[in-house]
Design goal:
By secondary structure, the protein is mainly β. It has one domain: monomeric porin ompg (Porin, Beta Barrel). It contains five helices and 22 strands. The strands form four sheets. The protein has a twelve-stranded antiparallel β-barrel. The protein has a two-stranded antiparallel ribbon with strand order 1-2.
């Protein structure tokens, strides 16, 4: 068995990798690639209509072109921000599996005594610790593609951008009505229908290590390397409210306007994700049950602009309870997740499940994993738009529902021990509800070695 000094040097090497791995320098970040879907010409702002207005009147051209852009219309800005923030914040929810070893021990009179029979859970934690001086080292590969946003297919997101409510000195006289009303002048009733189709594929290679500082206290480090690939398309359609000429268009003239536009965007990034540190303290251990507390922090080491990390610190505290009935080991994790900053909600965490030793080689692990949002969503959608003229009507700006972003998932997998101290991990994680931005399936494969 390697000496304690060798193990500590191994841990130091992993830590050096964590904080020395550079993120790639790119001319344009992945967040910018998302914004490109809303830009119709080089150097323009999102939703700027370069063709709108009187070609012989530059002031008119500029004014009509600006009437949809987010800085002029807060609702339009909120819609674009919702899409980009949902993608960015969800990267910070990349699942990290348990870093508890397949075999755990306590020492009695200097002799190691096993405190577990199964190889342990996969996306839950158990209370047993490794034992003083023992090391678990592993590497895993996780992959998924975001498929739905609050239940809406990522290939069929519908948005409707509305016109700015225009009012200026002399407007009432010019148009013969109250310009403070939304819909006066009548061109304010023009809208822009948008259909988005997006793919964000993520692959995460996680290197992790857990060290038993004492018989009851483990320290863990997880270093993720994230690869993100984005492709997207958008189709825009101006919907003039009426008249024989158009006030808003992408190109052409009022008499012969171009009312449709199509955009494509793609990009990729790879680099260090958000590094996690873990501390687990076993509070009580009996032959049939155990109780522990775990503290876990994810640090913003991944590039937020390249969708490699959340851009903010996140920390969680868990209470871990598990028992043992022969080869069957049920467990319960309950705790709280805190997100620093104002972009993501805190959450109440709960995981319940079991791991069951089927044979000397196979362990089955199954869990129900929940993350329940605290408070109102920090990713708000704009409300229903109400037009007051020429008649009262309403417009829903998106097919994305205003619901809570609770996350409920099922986890099912196996751990195999083909050789002493070596464990192979295979697992799937799948959604049981549709809150937030979710994949249809998350797969994980890994290998661990305990020494």
């Amino acid at each position: 068995m390697p000496s304690r000094a060798v193990r500590l040097r191994f841990i130091a090497a992993i830590a050096l990798i964590a904080f020395a791995t550079p993120s790639p320098a790119t001319a344009q970040h992945l967040r910018d690639k998302i914004s490109d879907l809303f830009i119709f010409g080089p150097g323009e702002e999102p939703l700027f209509l370069a063709g709108s207005g009187d070609p012989n009147n530059p002031a008119s051209l500029q004014a009509h072109g600006l009437h949809f852009i987010p800085s002029s219309n807060a609702e339009n800005g909120a819609l674009i921000a919702f899409i980009t923030d949902a993608l960015g914040s969800s990267i910070g929810r990349i699942p990290i599996g348990s870093t508890s070893g397949g075999e755990t021990f306590r020492f009695e009179g200097g002799v190691p005594v096993k405190t577990s029979t199964s190889a342990g859970p996969i996306f839950a934690e158990r209370a047993q610790t490794l034992g003083r001086g023992r090391v678990l080292a592993g590497i895993s590969r996780t992959g998924f593609r975001f498929a739905t946003l609050r239940g809406v297919d990522m290939h069929n997101i519908n948005l409707t951008f509305t016109h700015q409510n225009v009012d200026f000195p002399g407007c009432d006289t010019q148009f013969g009505a109250d310009c403070s009303l939304y819909g006066v002048p009548v061109l304010e009733n023009d809208a822009m229908d948008f259909r988005l189709s997006m793919d964000l594929d993520v692959r995460v290679t996680s290197m992790y290590i857990t060290y038993g500082i004492t018989d009851r206290f483990d320290f863990g480090l997880v270093v993720p390397i994230v690869q993100a690939n984005f492709t997207g398309e958008s189709d825009a359609q101006i919907e003039p409210f009426g008249g024989t000429t158009a006030a808003h268009y992408f190109a052409g003239t009022p008499d012969n306007p171009v009312l449709t536009a199509h955009r494509q965007s793609l990009g990729s990034a790879a680099g260090l994700g958000d590094v996690a540190l873990r501390l687990k303290l076993n509070m009580r251990q009996t032959p049939d049950a155990a109780f522990a507390v775990l503290l876990d922090g994810r640090f913003p080491t991944g590039s937020k602009e390249d969708l490699l990390g959340a851009g903010r610190f996140a920390g969680r505290a868990l209470i871990i309870i598990n028992s043992r009935m022969g080869d069957f080991s049920p467990h319960l994790n309950a705790g709280y997740l805190h997100h620093a900053g104002n972009e993501q909600n805190d959450a109440v965490l709960g995981t319940v499940g079991f791991d069951h030793r089927l044979s000397d080689v196979f362990t089955l692990a199954a869990d129900l994993v929940t993350e329940l949002q605290v408070g109102d969503s920090k990713l708000p959608l704009p409300g229903i738009v109400t037009y007051e003229a020429p008649f009262r009507r309403t417009l829903n700006p998106t097919n994305i529902p205003e619901i809570r972003d609770d996350v409920v998932s099922g986890s099912f997998g196996f751990k195999m021990t083909p050789a002493r101290n070596t464990t192979i991990v295979l697992n799937t994680l799948f959604p049981l509800n549709r809150g937030g931005l979710r994949p249809n399936l998350v797969y994980t494969a890994g290998i661990e070695y305990t020494f």
